[in-house]
Amino acid sequence: MNDFIFKENELYCEDIPVREIASKVGTPFYLYSLATLKRHFNVFNESSKVLNSIVCYSVKANSNIAILNFLFKMGWGADIVSGGELFRAIKAGVDTKKVVYSGVGKTEAEIEFALKSDILMFNVESLAEVFLIDKVAGKIGKKARISFRINPNVDPKTHPYISTGLKKNKFGINIKQALVAYEKAEELSNIDIVGLDCHIGSQLTEISPFNDAVGIINKLLLKIIAKGINIKYLDLGGGLGITYENEMPPHPSTYMNSIKKILAGYDGQVIFEPGRLIAGNSGIFVTKVIHNKDAGSKKFVIVDGGMNDLLRPALYDAYHEIIPVIKKSGAKLKVDIVGPICESADFLGKDRVMNGVEEGDLLAVFSAGAYGFSMSSNYNSRPRVAEVLVDKDRFSLIRRRETYEDLIDKEIIPDYA
Ligand code: LLP
Fold it and tell me: Among 260, 298, 343, 402, which lies 20 to 30 A Cα-Cα from 308?
């Protein structure tokens, strides 16, 4: 995080005062540091070299094409979950031979688009889906490379909404049905089985659930190989957590080395799909104080950014550190930092102790680079905010702020209305 640093009392992103960027682009906005992004890329990339691996960045974490373009130029592929993400990845210059496609509900049109783009493989989440992929591939005269996403029934010990590897979750194929799935897929003429996949959840801060899952998957892998099926790719998904408050997630190299031991007998390639780890602490969300509101027992700081811009606090009760861009002196107050949206869940932080912030002050909401902008919406008819990328002493808009016209330009009033 040290590319977002206070010099004296003022927050900088690399060599530029955040205040200066705010005065040029207005508020609220997302602000990313290229230096941090590079550092995260390097740490993960170097760590992954202990294994014969391919890294497919998880596009959903931050899908701005400038961020994608940087990661693809450095040689990474993409983990996608929709036709829209594939479109973005292609526009950002991905090598489609390094694209893996997950998700429980791929449509025929999306499957066709991915087949025509010649992606590396589909991570298939049900038998029904493999039949559909076989059908679409047959229709357009292609062979689809697939892996099955297996649900190992391991508790990732993270927020229930971002747990995906428990048998009650909709994701993956029940491990008990896995061998049958592989056998059935072998009979399909337009399917080429190339992999095995598993992703148990996001924001994991302990290594043991990964070890447990990879142990289970490794046993299955040996059984599949024993059947004469060639597994070239073992996709272990994403999920490594980051520090928002005081979490101490494992370092990527600890994780990789631990996995390497478990997979000692496997000689194919391993795929990783990191998202949050790369983008999360590479970005902040900058918002401006509109009012201070003293409601007696409760004090509110009302800001111009809301849950439509950064949904994580409202949806997961997620903690993001919030610090004034210019550090203040003065009395410490306990406040809720809330947005202008008409929902009581519209908060960015609760019960935060702050030195009396005033109208017009800028606040930085940290660790907002992943699942920030990508989960934002136009709720309450709020134009989506700008995104800015800093490189040392220069910055660029990588997405302009939406206008009111943008809000309605796809809407149509029919004759009969
Ligand atoms: N691969 C698959 C198949 C996934 O479903 C995900 C995330 C990833 C990779 C990347 O996981 P990561 O490395 O970022 O943990 N909106 C939530 C997070 C949802 C994650 C969904 N899947 C949040 O804001 O915490």
Answer: 298
